[in-house]
Amino acid sequence: MGRDVNKGGQGTAAPTRRALLAGMGAALAAPAMTGRAWARAGGARAEGARGGGTPVDLALVMAVDSSASISKVMLDFQLRGHAAAFRDKAVHQALAGGPKGKVAVQLALFSGPGTLTTLVPWTLLAGTQDALALADRIDEAPGVAMGGNTALGDCIVQAVRQLDACPYSADRRTIDLVSNGFNNGGIDPRSARAHAQAAGVDVNGLVILDEYDWLEPYYRENVVAGEDAFVITAANRHAFADAFLSKLVREVV
């Protein structure tokens, strides 16, 4: 989540829980973007990719928070947690367990409105060696802490567009959202998740509770989408890798 900074560059005093909730209520009450505004945020549907290409069990966009509350150290441990999961036998077994035995994944970073940035492009996982190679690519990827706000709604809308442009034909389409903050910029996340549901896309969340211990119900009520959608929590950086592994296995199977 983005931290407010005053003109002198110093962080402002932490707002109270009441003030935060009031601010979220005002943000959530804002009218949803439509038409041209959706398109600028990434909501325009990409042409032709959804039904073509190699059939896969799942197309998964893994979107990682890189906003102002995410330091370079924190971003690194998130990415290392992603890499470790793809080296784990539980994920390899999950990949092999689907009807097609294939999954397509993309890794991206996000912060404020319109910032979803691909870190690892669409990659086909058809076995253990593919998963291990992806883990190496994640380790080598140049993760950069972007700063700025946390635009969960924009991230969802842009990730739907990435799924529409996926070069593989997926039975299921899912956005895997990792963050330690609430929406404080851009599109209302409730409107964005409705957009995802209309496109047949599930949204799941992994929330890191290092700043706000009430994020789990917030994500359940405002962010995740789909009949089987879920939220997993990590109390801190040390719990992140296990939490992400559990989340990934659950999404793949």
UniProtKB/TrEMBL annotation:
What residue ranges carry the coiled-coil annotation?
Answer: none
Q: Which residues form the signal peptide?
A: none
| Matches recorded under Pfam families | DUF1194
| PROSITE patterns noted in UniProt | TAT, VWFA
Q: Which InterPro entries match?
A: DUF1194, TAT_signal, VWF_A, vWFA_dom_sf
User: Residues in domain VWFA?
Assistant: 59-248
The protein's matches in CDD domains, at most eight in alphabetical order, are given as: vWFA
Q: What is the protein's name according to its record?
A: Uncharacterized protein DUF1194
Q: Which organism is it from?
A: Nitrospirillum amazonense
